[in-house]
Amino acid sequence: MEPLGLSLGLLALFVAFGFMVGVFFGFFGMGGSFLVTPALLILGYPAPVAIGSSMAFVFGTAVIATMKHHDVGEVDYKLGALMFVGIALGIEAGKVLVYGLEAIGRAELVVGTAYVLLLAAIGGLFVRSALRTGSEVTDDSSGDGNEEEIPEIATKIKSYNLPPMVTLADGSKASMWTISGVGGGVGVVSGFLGVGGGFIRMPAIYYLVGVPLAAAVGTSLFGALMSGAVGAFTYGLDGVVDLGVVTGLLAGSALGARIGSAATAYVDEDDVTIYFGVMLLLASFAVALGEFATWLEMPILDTMSFVLLVGSSAFVTVVIFYYGAQAVRTNDIDPTATARGDD
């Protein structure tokens, strides 16, 4: 008997993998499609099924994680809605670019290479930022440590008053040109690479729009909810969403996403930044192995790629749980300690 059309072993694998991706989704604010889609492709699922099932999974997980961030006031719904307009238009532009490359037979090579480089670049940016922040805290321990967590580049961008201006949830203002530009840019990359775009959207909201990190995560999840809904509906109409795969992934992520979202209230933000970066660097290497497996016709590299994806996911999940447990234990010992201000 195969429940949902899957063997018990494969169903258990999807539940476990869904749990880990759900933790990352709630904790880092990324859609998870850059993990789920490659994993399904490595397991032999056709590309449309892998993408459609991944989008449906992202939508379901985003609903759960966004609800948790909503509970603690970490979602800027106005910003998310304004960005979605640019994202939708950008996705269409990205598709046109892909079709142009496909016409000259270069789509797979260019998209695969861009995917690897982009993941590595964003991962490196976050790791570098976290290490620099840690160094500054060590060298300047006399500071009050209570400044608004806005990156320098975002502060610089916000200093240019280009109307129309939009008031964000934290009371600061941002130009509609910046919001539209970020949304459109994220949409182009998302449409070009065929991914949910959370790993681009969250850093863009944080570094360019200038939203505090916790709110950037929550707002990115809200954007994933809307994007995932559109993607799941579109692919669902084509009948390429595997409900067995989606159900298994969602069964695990339902718990994982809430745990990941709750962990953001206890784990230090520097840890959020550096582990997000490490996760993207590992994902970049795993995707690169998958590309080499295709180019060199070496199935062993596909296996190594899948093991790296699952192994790195398990490692980072354990790390998040460890830091969360340490923070909870410290707060239990010292009642005056607080996590991220409220609650």
Automatic annotation (TrEMBL):
<dbReference type="GO" id="GO:0005886">
    <property type="term" value="C:plasma membrane"/>
</dbReference>
<keyword id="KW-0472">Membrane</keyword>
<dbReference type="InterPro" id="IPR002781">
    <property type="entry name" value="TM_pro_TauE-like"/>
</dbReference>
<feature type="transmembrane region" description="Helical">
    <location>
        <begin position="6"/>
        <end position="28"/>
    </location>
</feature>
<feature type="transmembrane region" description="Helical">
    <location>
        <begin position="79"/>
        <end position="98"/>
    </location>
</feature>
<feature type="transmembrane region" description="Helical">
    <location>
        <begin position="305"/>
        <end position="325"/>
    </location>
</feature>
<dbReference type="Pfam" id="PF01925">
    <property type="entry name" value="TauE"/>
</dbReference>
<keyword id="KW-1003">Cell membrane</keyword>
<feature type="transmembrane region" description="Helical">
    <location>
        <begin position="174"/>
        <end position="193"/>
    </location>
</feature>
<comment type="similarity">
    <text>Belongs to the 4-toluene sulfonate uptake permease (TSUP) (TC 2.A.102) family.</text>
</comment>
<feature type="transmembrane region" description="Helical">
    <location>
        <begin position="205"/>
        <end position="233"/>
    </location>
</feature>
<feature type="transmembrane region" description="Helical">
    <location>
        <begin position="110"/>
        <end position="131"/>
    </location>
</feature>
<protein>
    <recommendedName>
        <fullName>Probable membrane transporter protein</fullName>
    </recommendedName>
</protein>
<feature type="transmembrane region" description="Helical">
    <location>
        <begin position="272"/>
        <end position="293"/>
    </location>
</feature>
<feature type="transmembrane region" description="Helical">
    <location>
        <begin position="239"/>
        <end position="260"/>
    </location>
</feature>
<feature type="transmembrane region" description="Helical">
    <location>
        <begin position="40"/>
        <end position="67"/>
    </location>
</feature>
<keyword id="KW-0812">Transmembrane</keyword>
<keyword id="KW-1133">Transmembrane helix</keyword>
